[in-house]
Amino acid sequence: MQPKKYTRQLIDAIHDGSLAALPDSEWEEMPVFGLLMPKNGIKDVPKEILRPADAWAKAGKKTEEFTNTVKNLAGLFQKNFTDFANKCSPAVRAAGPK
What we know:
There is one protein chain. The protein is mainly α. The chain has one domain (3-94). Helices cover 49% and strands 6% of the residues. The protein contains 5 helices and 2 strands; from the N terminus they run αββαααα. A two-stranded antiparallel ribbon has the order 1-2.
């Protein structure tokens, strides 16, 4: 893995407009967190770098492990956020993990 190379490729995609030019059909929403992930790689960045579940699978981990970790992380986020929720707008409160 070459993280700096991939970071540069993503920044280049932002600067040259190729990231923004991807049609809506090229994105998929990540369950629980609602983040949009590209369905394919961007420039020379492999899709498994951009898609956490694919990265786990490539590392030989099971789907259940990924799902449990995501749910745990979401729970930790929600628990921590309760201390700040009353200071945030409804839009910010709604943007958290489901």
